[in-house]
Amino acid sequence: MSLSLILGPGALGRLLALRLAEQAPVTLIGRRPLPPRQALTTPEGETLDRELDCRTTATLTRALAGEAECLHLTTKAYAAEAALAAVADRLRPDLPLVLWQNGFGVQQVLAERWTGPVLCATTTEGAFLAGDDGVVHAGHGRTLIGALDGRHGSLAERLADRLTAAGLPATPVEDIRVRLWHKLAVNAAINPLVARFRIRNGQLRDRPFRPMVEAVIEEVAAIMAAEHIPAPEGGWDCLVWTVVSATGNNRASMLQDVLAGRPTEHAAILGPLLAAGRRHGLATPTLAALHARFDGST
C-alpha cells in the first residue's frame, strides 16, 4: 500500500503515525532523531508498541519521498511554512498535502503556494506526548477533511477512509473553511485557559473556570455572527462543552507547549478572532486579555 509521510512528530503526528502504520507504511519526519520503537497508550488504557520509520528533515531522501501517497503536515502553525520548506526540494510537485494546524491563516498561505492538491484537516482527537518514545491518545474525537476551495473531493474521501480504517474516524466535507472557524472557536475557549491555569480540559467544567469559558464563548459567538459563519448544530456552547467532555483527560496542545517551555500557538488561535473583532467594531476584552498574557505584554 502507499506510503504516508508525516512531517511533525508531536503528539498529533505520532498519533497519526502509530495508527496509520497499522494499515500501511508510514515515515515520521522531524528535526531530530527519535527512537524507532514508539508506544501508543489508548483512551482505554492499553499500550501498543510499534516500530516506525523515523527520519529527520536532513535524512529524508528524494527516492523515499517519491513513493509517498501524501504528506501530513502536523507541525505547529507557526512552524508549518519552515517545516515544509525544509523538505520541499525532495517532494513531487503534485504530492497531496494535508494540513493539520490549529488556527486559521497558514492554511490559506500554503494552499496558494503548494503546487499539488492541498487539503485541511480539523480534529478533536486528544493526544499528548509521553517522552521521546510514546504518545497518549487521551480522548476519542472526530476528524473532518477537505479543500478550502471545495475541490479534490475524491482525494478527501480516500484519505478520510484511510483514517477511519486506522481508528481515527474521519469525514470528507466541502465546507472545511467553516469547520476551521468552528475549530478555532473551540481552541479559543479551551487552549488559552488550560494553558494559563495548567489544568486538564475537563477541569474547565468547574468553578472558577466555567464562567471564563462562557465569557470566551460569548465573544466568539458575536465574532462568528459578524463574519457570517453559521453556528454548529446545538450552538457554540454545545460545541465547546461537548469537546471539553470528550477530551476531559487531555492536556491541550497549548498547555503541553507551556509545560515544555515551547512557543505557543496563541497568535494563530486568538489572532484571527481579534482581527475579526476589530474589523466589526466588537468588544473582545476576554480574548484580548488572554492574547496579551501569552504575548508577554501583561
UniProtKB/TrEMBL annotation:
Pathway connected to this protein: Cofactor biosynthesis; (R)-pantothenate biosynthesis; (R)-pantoate from 3-methyl-2-oxobutanoate: step 2/2
Enzyme's top EC category: oxidoreductase
Residue ranges of domain Ketopantoate reductase C-terminal in the record: 175-292
Record-listed E.C. numbers: 1.1.1.169
GO biological process, one term: pantothenate biosynthetic process
Name assigned to this protein: 2-dehydropantoate 2-reductase
UniProt feature coiled coil, ranges: none
Domain Ketopantoate reductase N-terminal, first and last residues per copy: 5-149
One term of GO molecular function: 2-dehydropantoate 2-reductase activity
GO cellular component: cytoplasm
Gene3D superfamilies named in the record: N-(1-d-carboxylethyl)-l-norvaline Dehydrogenase, domain 2 (1.10.1040.10), NAD(P)-binding Rossmann-like Domain (3.40.50.720)
Function as written in the Swiss-Prot or TrEMBL entry: Catalyzes the NADPH-dependent reduction of ketopantoate into pantoic acid.
Catalyzed reactions: (R)-pantoate + NADP(+) = 2-dehydropantoate + NADPH + H(+)
Keyword Oxidoreductase listed: yes
Alphabetic keyword roster: NADP, Oxidoreductase, Pantothenate biosynthesis
InterPro entries for this protein: 6-PGluconate_DH-like_C_sf, 6PGD_dom2, ApbA, Ketopantoate_reductase, KPA_reductase, KPR_N, NAD(P)-bd_dom_sf
A Pfam family this chain is assigned to: ApbA
Superkingdom assignment: Bacteria
Family in the record: Belongs to the ketopantoate reductase family.
